[in-house]
Design goal:
By secondary structure, the chain is α/β, with parallel strands linked by helices. Helix content is 42%, strand content 18%. An eight-stranded mixed β-sheet has the order 3-4-2-1-5-6-7-8, sandwiched between helices. A six-stranded parallel β-sheet has the order 11-10-9-12-13-14, sandwiched between helices. 45% of the residues are buried.
Length: 376
């Protein structure tokens, strides 16, 4: 029996000067999602907008880097992508990003028999004046995937998706990290604490580090061995964070601002930690959370749809912006911490590449069936 052939297409262009092999280091999730979907036996090809045309094979996936000029007309662009999809004989088109509904709709005009599935990547509904046209574009899809089904609500509320639309709850990506030895990781990284808590995220209002610091300060009164280690990239609130740490005796000497570290170093830091904390007010997924759970680290994260979907019954959830809620969650997590083996087992069963592969295979089969029923 011939394997189902799915083309995953990413319209976000590769930065100029980036070679085909370099794109995997720049965007690791491009390969992660493709390879996860392939674990179910589905044949996957990836079509990626790029500066230079190039084709390569990597771990059983065909990558078609396709040049598309910035000023290219939509009809010409759609025709070229449709020709490629027809040439490789794709059975399903998996479109990365709901912002590219117009492109997908234009392709569907050339390939009306090709089922289309959109995948959310932190997208928002378009402005109200674009919605009438956008509803028509979204109508080309036979299904849409979000990390949590609740994230579809704004699109349903604005009429972009119908209440009976196929909405799939599939994590946005997965992670290749492994558990390893906590003792060895602590010796390698210098992390310590009882508990040892790790933050990985930007220092901005959306991630809410100041509320996290307030909650940690109060928790430290009950957990005197607590140490918090913070890895971050963009840091518009860095000065505020530094002032907050400096003026509070419960935080000074207890909070360590590590700044930006290479991604491969994150795995060692995760392995060394007891808990992963996040104050995010919204996330389409939560890549750092995936990495923590892959390493067997207990999550103490905000009660938002994507985090609820990823954690299940593992760890502790707390209310966004509520430092008292975080304090209670941290103390409860220390008293009732699950074993690293249980956390990794949860990851393997629901968040691993193999788990995602099963979910994508079911979604692809559903959109094919839906597309056929619509056609008849």
């Amino acid at each position: 029996m011939t394997a189902l052939h799915v083309a995953q297409i990413n319209f976000v262009p590769v930065p100029k000067g980036t070679s085909g092999t370099d794109v995997f280091a720049l965007w690791p999730s491009l390969a992660d999602v493709a390879e996860a979907a392939a674990t179910s036996g589905t044949r996957i090809s990836v079509v990626q907008v790029a500066t230079n045309a190039e084709q390569l094979e990597r771990n059983g996936i065909s990558y078609h880097l396709t040049h598309s000029p910035d000023d290219e007309a939509l009809t010409r662009r759609a025709n070229r992508f449709a020709s490629l999809l027809q040439e490789i004989k794709a059975d399903v088109l998996h479109v990365h990003g709901l912002d590219f509904a117009e492109d997908a709709f234009a392709i569907s005009k050339h390939l009306p028999n090709l089922p289309i599935l959109f995948q959310d990547h932190a997208n928002r509904p378009p402005r109200w004046w674009r919605r009438p046209q956008s509803r028509r574009w979204y109508g080309a899809a036979s299904g849409v995937a979000f990390t949590a089904a609740e994230l579809a609500a704004p699109f349903i509320r604005t009429g972009l998706l119908q209440p009976d639309s196929n909405v799939f709850a599939i994590p946005e990506s997965t992670c290749r990290f492994t558990r390893g030895s906590r003792a060895r990781a602590r010796a390698e990284t210098g992390l310590h604490g009882d508990p040892c808590i790790l933050w990985v995220g930007h220092l901005n209002h959306g991630k809410d580090p100041l509320t996290v610091l307030d909650g940690v300060a109060r928790a430290a009164e009950a957990l005197p061995g607590l140490q918090l280690w913070c890895v971050f990239g963009n840091a518009p609130l860095l000065a505020d964070v530094q002032r907050r740490v400096h003026r509070d005796p419960h935080l000074a000497g207890r909070v360590h601002l590590l700044g930006q570290v290479p991604h491969e170093r994150i795995e060692w830091l995760m392995r060394a930690a007891d808990f992963f904390v996040s104050g995010s007010h919204s996330e389409s997924c939560g890549y750092a959370l995936l990495e923590a759970m892959a390493c067997g680290v207990t999550p103490v994260v905000t009660d938002i749809p994507s985090f609820r979907a990823l954690t299940g019954d593992i760890g502790q959830l707390w209310h966004c912006g509520n430092s008292d809620s975080l304090t209670e969650a941290l103390i409860s997590a220390v008293a009732n911490r699950p074993s690293p083996e249980r956390i990794r087992a949860h990851f393997d069963s629901t968040l691993s590449p193999t788990a995602l592969g099963r979910q994508w295979a079911e979604a692809y089969a559903t959109v094919i069936d839906t597309h056929r029923r619509r056609a008849t």
